[in-house]
Amino acid sequence: MPLWLSILLIIVAAIISGGACFFAGIDHRKKIAEAEIGSAEAEAKKIVEDAVKEAEAKQKEYVLEGKDEVHRFRNETEKELNARRKDIQRQERRVQQKEETLDRKMDNLEKKEDNIAKKLKQAEEKLQEAESIKKSEFDVLEKISGFTKEQAKDYLLKNLDGELTHGYSAVQQTT
């Protein structure tokens, strides 16, 4: 075989081998790129899944914190309401005690008013009795003594004044 043919065959074989290697290299790079893309996609999926799991965990944590906050707020509100109820009950008892005290005082005042009214009535009756006695004494004195009306009046007024002073002091002692 001639040398030129051998060289040509070697060159053709080298070109074919180079072309085959070139295409094999492209195919190899393509497979490596696809593998890297696949692993990048898998990594991206993993990152997304981790992010979703982390978001769900955070969501659960926030929900629990929210529930704890609601529970704490409810307890504080109940404590405050109970304190207000106790305060209102205490105030109601104080008002009721004051009402009872006022009722007792009103009863006492009514009794005192009744006693005063009775004493006033008795005093008026005694005054009328004294007036009638005075009048009858005037009449008797005029007939017996021959005093004038003015003289008899002065005499009786002095006697009556002494009796009323004595009767008034007795009335004050009974009150």
What does the model show?
The protein is mainly α and 175 residues long. The protein has one domain. It contains two helices and no strands. The mean pLDDT is 85.
Notable features of this structure?
2 helices, mainly alpha, 175 residues, rod-shaped
Total helical segments? 2
Looking at how many chains there are and whether they match, the oligomeric state comes to single chain
Biggest beta-sheet profile: none
The strand count comes to: 0
Q: What letter string, H or E per element, gives the SSE order?
A: HH
Low-pLDDT runs: none
Mean pLDDT: 85
End-to-end gap: 167 Å
In terms of DSSP E residues, the strand content is: under 5%
Number of domains: 1
Q: What is the 3D shape?
A: rod-shaped
Radius of gyration: 64 Å
Range of helix content: over 70%
Q: Based on helices, strands and strand pairing, what is the structural class?
A: mainly alpha
Layout of strands and helices, then pairs:
Blueprint: H1 3-145, H2 149-174
Summarize this, please?
By secondary structure, the protein is mainly alpha-helical.
